[in-house]
Write a structure and sequence with these properties.
Elements: H1 18-35, H2 50-56, H3 71-82, H4 91-99, H5 104-115, H6 121-138, H7 149-165, H8 167-176, H9 186-190, H10 198-203, H11 207-219, H12 227-233, H13 243-256, H14 260-277, H15 283-299, H16 302-319, H17 325-341, H18 344-361, H19 367-383, H20 386-404, H21 413-428, H22 432-450, H23 455-473, H24 475-484, H25 490-502
Helix pairs in contact: 3-4, 3-5, 4-6, 5-7, 6-7, 7-8, 8-11, 13-14, 14-15, 15-16, 16-17, 17-18, 18-19, 19-20, 19-21, 20-21, 21-22, 22-23, 22-25
Length: about 500
């Protein structure tokens, strides 16, 4: 590895936000002192003081993570992590690293999996190719991350294997996902074992059950245990960072389960604790405020939601700046709220600001940008600005196709929402043929993802039947009127038909 002659360790810092960066510096300092307690540079440093810690770290080399450009380097990673030697002459191994597109984490995930099984490289390659299609059917939102296809697919293969070996390990990992890459520990889950989830009660009945589930996740490289925390605190689990963070995470979990009362209780406790410990304008506090705004909106408490969003927005503008993506997310949330309240002018101002900011920060083709484009289209439709709405829907749909690929866009929920809205617009402007195309493709997509009896499928089928009835009544002169009143640009109409043909779901 480059620079291995000069340095004895690699320290990873999570710079996702100020909290995660503080914790990373703190963990790095603790790790250094554990193995080198006599290092003078860290003596007397307050491990909770980010400024002191960052000013003391002046040695080392900053590593930028990127794809491996050469097959040789990728094969070395795969060989080291899988424990399989002399793979350079194996065609299937070379084909696999090319398929994984040089992504170090995907290569490592595949390698760790292969270390624990007798599966050949050729057999793993078949699993990998089948995994992506499965992911598109079960988790279509992953299409928005296009370039990480390799990582998602290798991770899914590993997850499936874990689920076969220990179902509780797999369920624990799913629960863990709500904790934002942070730590969970035995005592935290044990105190929550009053849940109606039987697997969680079994998992936390004793240390042995919990540790067995965690061991499997560790074996496959998905989690790490902090033994220093166990030694210092006597805990039998993983290290605790922050009670308020744990409450926040449980709030997210309950909100996603539809347990809104429980979620509100968790968020409220987390907010009170953060305000006391960090202040009302701290970014972590503001994230909880934004979460409460989302919750109140879902509960129909629109006035309370507006108060939360306004608080979060003002705080984020001061702490992060008006163009930070987290700020823009709250701007977009306010736009959605104003639209629900019928404040269409205010909603338009928020959407326009969010769109301009996302275009600058993320680019015009990023899925977050495109979702704001779609929101603007819906707003324009409600305002009666049908030409503007059409332009927004067209841009969003074409952008989703570019971002996800024509083979996956028909399984991407935001794209299906745009198709449905586009169908409504075409029906409203008496372009029934194009409305049928959009409704049919959206219905096929929802059926593939949610099942043919889902709410959206039923609604779209009703709209299609209504169109059929109208067509039967006015069949005589309809075709001619559609051609005369069709899209302003014939080429755009042809593009939509072409797009519709590509969106067919088998």
């Amino acid at each position: 590895m480059r620079h291995e002659e000069k340095y004895t360790a690699i320290l990873w810092l999570n710079a996702n936000n100020e909290d995660s960066l503080k914790l990373s510096f703190r963990a790095a300092a603790q790790q250094i002192l554990k193995y080198h307690p006599s290092i003078n540079v860290l003596n007397g440093v307050n491990l909770d003081d980010l400024n002191q810690l960052s000013s003391r770290y002046t040695q080392g080399y900053r590593i930028y993570i990127q794809k491996f450009l050469g097959v040789q380097e990728a094969l070395e990673i795969l060989s080291n992590t899988s424990g399989r030697k002399d793979i350079i002459e194996e065609p299937a191994a070379t084909e696999l690293v090319k398929e994984l597109d040089g992504l170090p984490l995907a290569l490592s995930t595949a390698g760790v999996y292969l270390e624990h099984v007798t599966t050949s490289f050729s057999e793993y390659l078949q699993l990998y190719r089948a995994s992506w299609l499965k992911l598109q059917q079960t988790s279509p939102q992953l299409s928005s991350y296009g370039g990480d296809r390799s990582l998602f697919s290798t991770w899914q293969i590993t997850f499936d294997r874990i689920e076969q070996q220990n179902a509780k390990s797999a369920k624990l990992l799913k629960l863990w996902a709500y904790f934002d890459r942070q730590d969970v520990w035995f005592e935290l889950l044990r105190h929550g074992n009053s849940s109606d989830e039987e697997w969680l009660r079994e998992l936390t009945k004793d240390d042995l059950s919990f540790n067995e589930a965690v061991r499997l996740l560790r074996d496959y490289g998905l989690v790490d245990a902090d033994l220093s925390f166990q030694q210092s605190s006597g805990s039998g689990g993983l290290d605790v960072k922050d009670l308020e963070w744990a409450l926040d995470s449980f709030g997210n979990l309950y909100a996603n389960q539809g347990k809104l009362t429980e979620a509100e209780a968790m968020y409220t406790r987390a907010l009170q604790g953060k305000e006391e410990a960090l202040g009302s304008k701290y970014t972590s506090t503001l994230n909880t405020v934004n979460n409460l705004g989302n919750l109140y909106k879902n509960q129909g408490k629109l006035a309370e939601a507006e108060a939360m969003y306004t608080w979060a927005l003002q705080g984020k503008e001061e702490a992060l700046g008006s163009k930070h993506t987290s700020t823009l997310q709250t701007v977009n949330n306010l736009g959605l709220l104003y639209a629900d309240q019928g404040k269409l002018a205010e909603a338009e101002a928020m959407y326009t600001r969010a769109l301009q900011g996302n275009e600058e920060a993320l680019g015009s083709k990023h899925t977050s940008t495109l979702q704001t484009v779609n929101n603007l289209g819906s707003l324009y439709a409600n305002q009666g600005k049908l030409a503007e709405a059409e332009a927004m829907y067209t841009r969003a749909l074409q952008g989703y196709e570019e971002a996800c690929g024509p083979e996956h866009v028909s399984l991407y929920l935001p794209a299906l929402s745009t198709m449905s809205a586009f169908g409504d617009l075409f029906s409203r402007t008496d372009r029934k043929d194009l409305a049928k195309v959009m409704y049919s493709q959206a219905s096929s997509g929802y059926a593939a993802i949610q099942g043919p009896s889902s709410k959206w499928c039923r609604q779209l089928e009703d709209r299609l039947q209504a169109l059929q009835s109208e067509s039967a009544k006015s069949k005589g002169g309809q075709d001619k009127s559609i051609e005369i009143g069709a899209l302003k640009s014939r080429s755009l109409k042809q593009k939509l038909y072409k797009l519709g043909s590509r969106l067919k779901v088998g």
